[in-house]
Predict the 3D structure of the following.
Amino acid sequence: MLTLEKLRVQQGDFDLSADFSLQEGARTAVLGPSGAGKSTLLGMIAGFVQTMSGRVLFRGDDITHATPGARPIAMLFQDNNLFPHLDVTQNVGLGVTPDLRLSADQKAKVFGALDRVGLAEFATRKPAALSGGQQSRVALARILVQDRPLILLDEPFAALGPALKAEMLDLVSELALENGATLMMVSHDPADARRITDQTILVADGVAHGPQPTATLLDNPPPALQAYLG
Ligand SMILES: Nc1ncnc2c1ncn2[C@@H]1O[C@H](COP(=O)(O)OP(=O)(O)OP(=O)(O)O)[C@@H](O)[C@H]1O
């Protein structure tokens, strides 16, 4: 279980609080108006954003002050964070160890992940020689080799066309299910939330609200969400 206990952050005149838990294995969308604090919420959990008060607990351990790398978290951002001078295998290998000195077992793990995302034959290509969807798959393979129980996605597929985005969402969903990982995904598209999540956190008016069933929330949106959905 991931618990955000009276967690609060302040950045200039922006204030956000969160006080809820997520069950392990849950798939959760994070929706809300632009600037409401969705990325900030993920940053608080991942340790990139300094919190002012409250605690973050995972499986009962207090990780509030742990460095990002020491948290049980793998995070995927919109731009995929691939290194242009490294090939596909190396980009994925970075998820195993930053110095890229991989043991035979670790190399096998990297190739296993590439195979799982359908990129085995692209192992020696540089990112520039891949399509947008293939680049997203590389980034996903890197998430896979990290073996973290909590996967945070910050609009990772926003730049892809609708069909490819749907395909990538389904792949993420399958991978999370296979690994028993807990998934949190920021999106601007309610259809993404409906497609792969069971529950949704609404971030609005300075509060990240506790999760509610995605369909219930989207079928009967509260005013803040209604205004945003239009
Ligand atoms: N380092 C910072 N210092 C001060 N304010 C910041 C900082 N980073 C973000 N903010 C502010 O915090 C608020 C929340 O930003 P955040 O990026 O979390 O929103 P969001 O809901 O993810 O937005 P979007 O949907 O547009 O990506 C915004 O008002 C933003 O301007």
Remarks:
- The chain is about 35% helix and 25% strand.
- The longest strand covers residues 2-11.
